[in-house]
Structure prediction request, 426 residues.
Amino acid sequence: MIIFLCLINYLLILFSVYIFCVKNGTISLNGFFFFSVGYAYYWLTPYFLSSLLGSTAPEELQIVIERFVSITDETSLTYLVLSFLFYAIFTFFYYVSFNGKSPRKPITQKSERAIRFWSIMSCLGIGLAALMAIPIKHYFFTGYDAALFENYQDGVVQDALPRGTFIASTSILFSMAFMRAVMKHGHMQKILPVLTDPFMLAYYFFAILALSLGGRLYFATNMLTVIIFFSTYFSWRVKLSEFFVLGLAGIGSAAMWGVLRAGSDFSLFNMALNLAQEPLLTSISSFSFLTSGKLPLINFPSFLISDFINLIPSVIFPGKINYLLNPLNFGYDFAMPLGGLHVFVSLLINFGITGAAVFFAAVGYLLGNYRKTVSTQKIVIYSLICACMTFTFNRDPFSVSIVKNIFENSFLIPFILYSIQKKFFK
Prediction:
């Protein structure tokens, strides 16, 4: 029954992607496409694989299976029905708002004053990333150091905070460098000049340092931003045959990097295991939450409100984590031994089932409406947000995903800087 319901959910996603993204043998790799990929990967794949493998799962996944088998069939049915409804609601409101219209005006090369402004901002971003790299220089090219997780408590690795601050600074640098590259080269409507802009090359240097720490999702998210921008603004489409080749290459690269950072032998089994571990280990939190059977109908987002404390930089307020409300202290029961918190848990403890449905309707409507903008800079912001909806939205606590990655890094900082540039550096 569980496998059947998972397949129904997969078919809904495939049908939606086919209807809204595929045309004349080509596919648009837009924000809706990558949201759908993330949804299938994090919401459905853990349930599907756990039900399919059961006790035959590899030893590395037994910690997940132990949680999964404790969930009642009734609760599993509720989860999969809610997964279906939430995705359907997001899709409906996204396309009602978007209405298939995407008015565009050609990108003209911006003034030298505007480009100079973003060059200065990118230089400041480089300086910030370099400054944040200094305290963790001994961690570079070490992958996941076991010592880093010794002080892990309640979803926070205290010793990893400087590492998180550095990775966040690379994301800020990317948003500035990408904005500058688009304003400088966007009128060419070619992706290569944007990717090889000098400030984008500077970003790659710091991205390599971030990758050497063992992380890959932030770099992948930033690259998705570029793809979403070109797919959205220039209606860039890829032939389905090319899409499957590029998709396999991307998935293979991610899997190989995961095997490399884990120090395992290269094999198809280890690559497949590595790809499965990401959503499955994240699902420990949702499985343990579902085991408790506490699925509130509606909630007030007090935890999300407290999460906005995370907007204060750690260098200014190093003890800010201690002031975030901990759901475990308010009667909720779930485990997150490796730090990943499934978005299903975050949604229900903040909004409840009804509130989560409203949340997906609102986000779908806003993203669909924002996609229609004719502003180059706003499409960059839209692309940044949509890229975050693929990974971090589904697997990080709201204090990281919503507050830091989406609100601060993808919207607030680019919007403020864009407003300053538009007013004073036209």
Notes: Confidence is low (pLDDT under 50) at residues 146-157. Residues 155 and 339 are 5 Å apart (CA to CA). Strands lie at 22-23, 26-27, 152-153, 156-157, 238-239. The two ends are 60 Å apart (CA to CA).
